[in-house]
Design brief:
The complex is a heterodimer of chains A (412) and B (304). Chain A has 412 residues and is α/β, with parallel strands linked by helices. Chain A is built from 20 helices and 14 strands. The longest helix of chain B is centred in the N-terminal third of the chain and has 40 residues. The chains are: A alpha/beta (412), B mainly alpha (304). Chains A and B meet through helix 3, helix 4 and helix 19 of A and loops of B. Chain A: InterPro entries: Bact_solute-bd_prot1, SBP.
């Protein structure tokens, strides 16, 4: 750690010299990190930055997580901060297109980020330019009750057939195999993403979310056919449209359900509810077609330079600071997520270690998540279709035709 | 001493026209606000509905394309159908409110407490009402399904079933709306002429006949207001839907107001033009009722 920081001191000294003449330097950052862990992580991050650059005064505006999605549009146009956090992939496309984010290729070139942030480079690139600094990501997969699996003699399923068999065993013992809450729709997209990544692979999934493949295509139908198998084996909890993802945690905590297809953020509330690491474990979503390289889902959070920023130089210092491995180590230890920078250390947590191992060995590609890879309108229609399919699988044709209609309009 | 100074012409003009202009002067601030915040936005929405705009970039003029898409949009027809269901069932709040009011219109000890308790659902926020009813309907832990199980029935996931979800939300909405109508009728009942009741009683009227021929006609102003607020309340229903189902399952509980919000302002929306087109349609539907009621009000005022 110390060695690494020392190597950076020279570069940093150079950049501070440039601004030695300036008196009061400022930097304005807007973030949506209102949940306890992200809030604390950003507090630390900003304090550390100020300690390193004592002449820069950081103003940090903290927004409510949900409200931010609307307010970012207003403040970027009307009263722009220098930096704002957001998400990688298609989610940042509208802001890039509207000229509200500025490219920061110079920061990437200067600090060799093409090398150190390589895993997320593709999802930060639009029109050949880099549009922000990724600082954290987390794996998706299946979280499950290890104690229930052990009691019933179920192994971590490696193939889809083993997963279906596990569902049968659990059902036979009166335990719901997979809990899910689809009231806010996106949880169903997690299942769809994995089924598509495993059935057709990463390239197909990206082509589908980018509108290059009709929803009525036979390969899309194959995904739903696999999903139908899960429904036929009664894999999912009943009445899932009633619940949010948090409410759907309850059956798992109470031992009435055994698995949850989720992101790593589900671990914190499950632990808070009293589950220990002996009761809770993680496995990679099983293989469906062995000929398809395994791709994973790992949404990336990012910080962007606003096009109307007033303190561009300070903002770029901050971005370079955020890209540093030691900084990412620290922020992700607080967040309970994975750092992106090469050389950063993973916190001592079994889920993070498993996730890190899985993602570093991923050869197929890393998807962001359905509603970040597909444009907003397509995402909304798609997720609604997924929820409907899970309850009314017999309506598949009507659902796919509806999605196809949306696709033809959205990607004109 | 003829030094009556000639009044300045302007002052004379003001004197002469004072009576005519004073009301407009007093109205001016109100009219200005109404123009800026109500009338002008209506026309802005209408013009916006002819554009394709994401709220950030350039607006593109697309003529009536938004409306063409709207009339070929299943979600729009679902919302429209739900609006009609809301409109019809929400009116149940009026008779319900009337009967609660008749029931509470008596003098027993603590009647004020009972009245306030019945009025309570209208005082708490719609969001809270929505949450309370979501818990009531919850398929695993909700009171409704515990009761159903007590009778040996299968639990009904009211809010997760497209057949029942809209009705479930309307039932939640009727709770505060009934309280509102009740208060309107309670004040109305205070104004009922005791002499007419007395006279009717001497003529042998009681029960339903008394209510229908003597009391109800005197409650007409209260009924009128209750109709207006209930219909407008039904058309702008939004918060309960947002809290209880978020428009789901798969969009089956959307109404126009909610669909407009989703298209224009939600996380997956930002189609300002399309949202504006929905708003214009909703406005047109509301206009039918609003103008009918305004017309009736105008006629009644003149009739006096």
């Amino acid at each position: 750690m110390f060695l690494r920081t020392k190597t950076l001191v020279a570069a940093l000294a150079a950049s501070t010299l440039l601004a030695s003449g300036a008196t009061a330097r400022e930097l304005v950052i807007n973030t949506d990190t209102s949940d306890p862990a992200p809030k604390k992580a950003f507090e630390q991050l900003i304090a550390d930055f100020e300690a390193e650059y004592p002449d820069i005064k950081v103003t940090w505006n903290l927004f409510d997580h949900e409200g931010y999605k609307t307010s970012i549009r207003n403040f970027l146009t009307a009263d722009s901060p220098d930096l704002a956090n957001w998400y990688a992939g298609n989610r940042m496309l509208p802001y890039v297109k509207a000229g509200l984010f500025a490219p920061i290729d110079d920061v990437w070139d200067e600090h060799n980020l093409h090398e150190t942030l390589a895993p997320a480079a593709a999802s930060m690139t639009i029109d050949g330019k880099k549009w922000g600094i990724p600082y954290t990501y987390y794996q998706w997969g299946v979280y499950y009750r290890l104690d229930i699996f052990n009691k019933l003699g179920i192994e971590e399923p490696k193939t889809f057939d083993e997963l279906l068999a596990a569902c049968d065993t659990l059902n036979a013992n009166g335990i719901t195999p997979i809990t899910i809450g689809t009231k806010y729709l996106w949880t169903a997209a997690g299942v769809f993403d994995y089924l598509d990544l495993r059935t057709n692979g990463y390239d197909f999934h990206m082509a589908l979310t980018q509108g290059e493949i009709p929803w009525t295509d036979d390969r899309v139908r194959a995904v739903f056919a696999n999903w139908k198998k899960m429904l036929d084996h009664d894999c999912f909890i009943d009445n899932h449209p009633s619940w949010s993802w948090q409410e759907a945690l309850a059956p798992m905590v109470q031992g009435e359900a055994a698995m949850y297809v989720m992101g790593n953020f589900a671990v914190a509330p499950l632990r808070e509810a009293g589950l220990t690491d002996d009761q809770l474990d993680f496995f990679q979503f099983p293989v469906i077609d062995p000929s398809i390289p395994l791709a994973e889902e790992a949404p990336t959070d990012t910080v962007h330079l606003a096009a109307n920023a007033k303190n561009v130089e300070e903002a770029k210092l901050f971005l370079a600071f955020l890209a540093r491995p030691d900084v990412q180590t620290k922020i992700n230890a607080t967040l309970g997520q994975l750092p992106i920078a090469k050389g950063a250390e993973i916190a001592d947590d079994k889920f993070l270690r498993e996730g890190y191992e899985m993602l570093s060995n991923t050869t197929g590609g890393i998807a962001q998540f359905f509603d970040r890879d597909a444009p907003a309108e397509m995402a909304k229609a798609g997720m609604e279709g997924f929820q409907e399919f899970m309850v009314k699988p017999e309506r598949l044709d009507a659902i796919l035709e509806r999605l196809e209609k949306v696709r033809q309009r959205v990607y004109k | 001493m003829t030094d009556i100074s000639p009044s300045t012409p302007s002052r004379g003009w003001w004197r002469r026209n004072q009576q005519r202009f004073a009301p407009w002067l007093f109205l001016a601030p109100g009219i200005a606000m109404f123009l800026v915040y109500v009338i002008i936005p209506i026309f802005q929405s209408m013009s916006l509905s002819l554009y394709d705009w994401d709220g950030l970039g350039e607006k593109t003029y697309i003529g009536l394309d938004n409306y063409r898409e709207l009339f070929d949009d299943e979600a729009f027809y679902t919302s429209l159908k739900n609006n009609v269901i809301w409109l019809v069932l929400y009116l149940l709040a009026i008779p319900a409110g009337l009967f609660v009011a008749l029931f509470l219109n008596q003098n027993v000890t603590g009647i004020r407490l009972y009245k306030s308790l019945f009025f309570f659902p209208f005082v708490i926020s719609q969001v809270v009402v929505g949450l309370v009813f979501s818990w009531f309907y919850d398929p695993s832990y909700g009171l409704l399904n515990i009761i159903l199980q007590g009778f040996g029935l299968e639990p009904i996931p009211v809010l997760a079933d497209e057949r029942y979800a809209t009705y479930g939300i309307i039932a939640a909405g009727l709770w505060p709306q009934t309280a509102y109508c009740m208060i309107l009728y309670l004040t109305g009942l205070n104004a009922v002429d005791p002499e007419q009741i007395e006279a009717a009683r001497l003529d042998g009227a009681k029960g339903w006949r008394m209510l229908w021929y003597v009391v109800l006609p005197q409650l007409r102003p209260a009924t009128f207001i209750a109709m207006v607020v209930t219909i407008i309340g039904a058309l702008r229903s939004f918060d309960l839907i947002s809290i209880m189902t978020d428009g789901g399952p798969w969009g089956s509980t959307r109404v126009l107001a909610f669909y407009m919000y989703e298209q224009a302002f939600s996380e997956y929306g930002f189609r300002m033009g399309y949202g504006a087109a929905i708003a214009v349609v909703l406005f047109a539907i509301m206009m039918v009722y609003i103008s009918a009621f305004l017309w009736k009000m105008y006629r009644d005022e003149r009739g006096r």
